Inverse folding.
């Protein structure tokens, strides 16, 4: 497949959104079952910037 910049313009925001929601619900379920690690790290939010440091 040949991907050009237009593909990334459309796919980039969708990828960021889906990864943010995915990781948020991981954190939410962990918190629900008693693990406060994500809350203590400030990652119990839908703000994608709060998740960026964990990806580095």
């Amino acid at each position: 497949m040949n991907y050009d910049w237009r593909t990334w313009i459309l796919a980039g925001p969708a990828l960021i959104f889906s990864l943010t929601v995915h990781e948020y619900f991981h954190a939410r379920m962990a918190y629900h079952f008693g693990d406060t690690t994500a809350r203590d790290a400030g990652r119990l939010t839908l703000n994608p910037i709060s998740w960026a440091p964990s990806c580095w």
